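Bench notes, bay 3.
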Amino acid sequence: MRNRGLKCWGALAALAALGACATVPPDRPGSELPARERYMPYVGPPIERFTWMMPIDGFEALSDSELIVFMGANTAYYLKVWAPCGTKGLRFSHGVGLSSSVGGTVTARLDSVQTQGMSCPISEIRPLDYKRMKEEARAGHAGQPDVQR
């Protein structure tokens, strides 16, 4: 097992070295993904913090510095981090984690999104009305697939 861990760390170090050669400008044209348009109408006003009681159920990058994290069937948050997050931005991340400096609470300007060995400070947190988004998608697109994440 130990040898396998060393191989994984070696591979991650090699990827990090390659990624360091290609940084992404934070405000380049076309850095927003189509998913952003779908989620933003359901994003609420900024909040200072949220309590994090369960594992992240998934995430979706909206740009190199914005993502939606899902915390269960109907709970999701929009997070904006100092741009870009990681060597290429959030849209190239395969997984994310969250820091919590105060026992299960994620706080804007204090905690961060963790991805690919990078710690990206959270500048903004907004709740996402994911339940309403799914309901409206079902009502407006009868016969078409539901909103997927």
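Next record in the batch:
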Amino acid sequence: MRALLPLLALVAAAVPASAEVAPGSAKDIATGLTGAYADNPFAKILAGRLPATRVYEDRTVLAFMNIHPLANGDLLVIPKGHYRNLIDIPRPVLDHLIDVTQRLARAQMRALHPDGIFIRQNNGEAAGQTVFHFHMHVTPQWKAIPLAQTSYRQPPADPKQLAAIAARIRAALR
């Protein structure tokens, strides 16, 4: 048994740490690449059961400020349909969502003058997905400011600050 302990420690170290599942998600939510769509914070925003600082909206997508931002101006772009991840989302919806993501990145560039823009999309808990509704992160980055390490255990960002940044980005949308 003692001979197995070092081997078990190596195996445990090789297993990636689980991502946090967002508060407000269904209790029995599937966290892998497959599974039924379940209630989650983004579904609640779409249904009007949770507030969001909206930046852009049309028939197909909604963009809003991330309440746990990695940087000032961090946006989330989601489809209005209930798709868990990239595997589920229909191509026409994805194409439109990418177009909107690009428009928002350009607006961030004009409004916030970042040095770069980080676009991220995670699929499954093992890849860091914490809300199981397809979404794109559009995060401005500045050379001198490292991205924040956020956690759902931290309090959300100040709504007044989010609203002020959202207004600047909305004004820069053309």
